[in-house]
Write a structure and sequence with these properties.
The protein is of the alpha+beta class. It contains two helices and twelve strands. The relative contact order is 0.16. It binds copper (II) ion (CU).
């Protein structure tokens, strides 16, 4: 109880129970372990994306995405008419976030590497690749270039998880990963 003043003004000189000292020592050592694990895992953990970020004018970026989509368009999505672009393996792939979509849809080949460019045309958006653990915050004016090598084929969803307005909850996109030589 700390309602009354301590009997002795020099209360911190009182002996500390051995059990309490042991717990303080354990907590301190554990804190040190957790601290150095952060540094260790930053270097050796595999969760870090190999991303490079540079400045870009949003209008210029949209122009690049449109030129890319025109060049590599292979078809349109059935229900929505959104173009599906299939970039060359080893090449650049572009997607732009804008209220309220990720555009265009990409088709990538499994086992091939791509430089995936991400940026926003208007507001802050999120690039959360489902069902993987990749999550990138995307801002207008900043262009992320992430090197990706899909190791699984299938349909991946892109979910915006930075609140961006009234249509945020329906904002999504799609990336198809196909076996090499398939799709198109
Ligand atoms: Cu959003």
């Amino acid at each position: 109880m700390a309602i009354h003043s301590p009997e002795s003004r020099i209360w911190w000189n009182e002996p500390v129970a051995r059990g309490e000292l042991v717990w303080v020592a354990i907590a301190f050592v554990w804190g040190l372990i957790m601290f150095f694990m952060m540094i260790y895992w930053h270097i050796y953990g595999k969760q870090n994306l190999s991303a490079v970020v540079g400045r870009v004018d949003p209008e210029v970026y949209v122009g690049k995405v449109e030129a890319f989509t025109e060049k590599y368009k292979v078809r349109e999505e059935g229900e929505t008419g959104i173009p599906v672009a299939k970039p060359e393996a080893g090449g650049d792939a572009y997607m732009v976030a804008r209220t309220f979509e990720w555009w265009p849809v990409l088709e990538l080949e499994k086992g091939k590497s791509y430089k995936l460019h991400l940026s926003s045309a208007d507001l802050q958006h999120g690039f959360s690749l489902q069902p993987t653990n990749i999550n990138i915050q995307v801002h207008p004016g900043l262009e992320h270039v992430v090197t990706v090598t899909p190791n699984e084929s299938g349909t991946f969803g892109v979910v915006c998880n930075e609140y961006c307005g009234l249509g945020h909850h329906v904002m999504g996109g799609r990336i198809y990963v196909v076996e090499p030589g398939q799709g198109g």
